[in-house]
Amino acid sequence: MIFYVDMIMQYVEGIANADQLAAALKQLGSMLSSGSECIELSEQVNCMKERLNNISIERTNIEEFREETNFSRYIDLLFQAVKDGYSIIITSMDTPCGSQRFTNELGEKLRMLESGTNLSNKWGASYCAVIERGQIDEKILDTHSVSMTVTLGNAEVFVKSAGMQKVDSPRMCSVTINGKERAVKRRGLSFVIYDKENDRVVLYPTSFQSIIGYSNSHEL
Prior knowledge:
Order of helices and strands: HHHHHEHEEEEEEEE
Number of strands: 9
Structural class: alpha+beta
Strand order of the largest sheet: 3-2-1-8-9
């Protein structure tokens, strides 16, 4: 029992991720319902089980994502989503950078999400990436479009980006999940948050503009 209490505390403190907590709770639930002679369902155990049933293992606040228009604070939320076990899909249209507000420091903060590329000086580049379980798969090119196909849970995900003046493609970006388009067709960076354990889009695409004055997307 102490192990499970410790796991809950580690999750609350941000040490354990959602997958680890879910596995521990599933194991505990099996033990508590098995009727094993080695476990006495005392009032203390029953109380603990009731408390566990009331715990939500999803710490990512989706409403905060929807309402956040500051890119730096949005990156903070992405860090929490990664910690909670969600997959992050990123693509860009036209260019991933350009605004004076997209400083090297801000680019470094985004890069530290999973040790990817600092995009603050990648004007006009094609860029796409998938962050999954602490690892990043990314592609970036100056002259051509880039694309990748990955499997997240039961979903096949196709990501593509074409920056400015690419020899093989007009300007565009795309994120398709099982054939359904999810990307925001706007200049700048687009983010999709995906829950592969439940095969669902947790947050529909958010786009941050890379050029000041470009409408219909959040400013950097």
